[in-house]
Specification:
Largest sheet: 3 strands, antiparallel
Number of strands: 5
CATH topology of the largest domain: Serine Threonine Protein Phosphatase 5, Tetratricopeptide repeat
Helix content: 25-40%
Oligomer: single chain
Strand content: 5-15%
CATH architecture of the largest domain: Alpha Horseshoe
Order of helices and strands: HHHHHHHHHHHHEEHHEEHE
CATH superfamily of the largest domain: Ankyrin repeat-containing domain
Strand order of the largest sheet: 4-3-5
Radius of gyration: 22 Å
CATH class of the largest domain: Mainly Alpha
Length: about 350
């Protein structure tokens, strides 16, 4: 289930080849195929269907987003979930595998009803949101009248309306829906310091690498905005989640058969860059991106020297002092140990 949750198709194939139950379900009857439909993991769904995944099971209850369903998809088949979540690729695979047809809910979303949804969020009215949903509002509608062309979920974060965020996430609003400048709900939460909203978005699998355009013309992640806006607790939460997600990408198959540990995972483990120490904060090892600036070559050593900073220290530099630094975006790829 975890391999499907993070779209780790190599892990899915490895688990299936080593005897994992393709229809193994959680306590609430959520199967790996249902999870693939929920997240839009097309390659994982393809592997599961090829291995004989059943398409009929329906989830019986609500679970946290990373391991099961939510109130917007509870009680539906994998195909119905894919249609609800607008994951057409997964829906097409299931249709092809079953030889069936699907008639999605094609009810047109009335712009006036969508505006009611946005206004309900703007005024922090959960009852108004429910009323708009009952009338057929599109939860992912972008309000063209707003300056930054934002959706209801982003507006809920901006307004610091956790109940609205929870309602929208629980009813399958796209958690990474972005405006034209890349701002997602999580980016807004990092900028505005919305801790409760951030926790819900991270739990729903929000992309910690999404970047929004800042006033200085650069694109920043939620973590970077949290640092810049002096929300250190929020920055720690976002970074910890990003690190844990990356670790799962490497380690999610380690509990399987020992032969699977021979796999070399394509990707990175957000652990450290060797044992490099930050030249400003003293942090060692550095987690996340490194920022390096070449210094004058040391003729005695016959080698180029660098000043190395962690991201936190780099972002605190005055703009004039940031010139010349090179960013090392990711740690080295880490092989799974034998």
């Amino acid at each position: 289930m975890e391999a499907v949750s993070i779209g780790f198709k190599e892990g899915v194939y490895a688990l299936l080849e080593n005897g994992a139950d393709v229809n193994g379900a959680t306590a609430s009857a959520w199967t790996p195929l249902a999870r693939a439909a929920h997240t839009g993991a097309t390659d994982c769904a393809k592997a599961l269907l090829a291995a004989g995944a059943k398409t009929e099971p329906r989830g019986l209850g609500s679970e946290v987003s990373r391991t099961g369903g939510d109130s917007g998809t509870t009680g539906k088949t994998a195909l119905e979930i894919a249609v609800t979540r607008k994951h057409q690729g997964v829906a097409d695979l299931i249709i092809a595998a079953t030889g069936g047809d699907v008639v999605p809910d094609a009810r047109a979303h009335d712009p006036a009803v969508n505006k009611l949804l946005y206004e309900a969020v703007d005024t922090k009215s959960t009852e108004g949101i429910q009323r708009a949903v009952d009338l057929g509002a599109d939860l992912n509608w972008t309000n063209p009248s707003t300056k930054n062309k934002i959706c209801a979920l982003l507006e809920a974060v901006y307004k610091d309306f956790p109940d609205g965020v929870k309602f929208l996430v629980d009813h399958s609003a796209l958690v990474d829906n972005s405006n034209p400048t890349g701002w997602t709900a999580l980016v807004q939460a990092g900028y505005s310091g919305r801790k409760e909203c951030t926790e819900m978005l991270l739990n729903a699998g929000a992309d910690t690498e999404a970047k929004g355009l800042d006033n200085d013309g650069t694109y920043k992640t939620a973590f970077q905005f949290a640092i810049n806006q002096n929300h250190p607790e929020l920055a720690d939460l976002i970074r910890a989640t990003a690190i844990e997600t990356s670790k799962r990408g490497i380690r999610c198959i380690l509990d399987g058969d020992a032969t699977m540990t021979k796999l070399i995972v394509k990707g990175t483990l957000a652990a450290c860059h060797d044992t490099t120490t930050c030249g400003a904060s003293g942090m060692s090892p550095i987690t996340g991106p490194l920022y390096r600036k070449p210094l004058v070559a040391d003729s005695a050593l016959g080698a180029q020297r660098f000043r190395t900073l962690c991201e936190d220290a780099f972002l605190k530099l005055p703009d004039a002092e940031k010139a010349g630094y090179m960013v090392v975006e990711e740690p080295r790829a880490v092989p799974i140990p034998y």
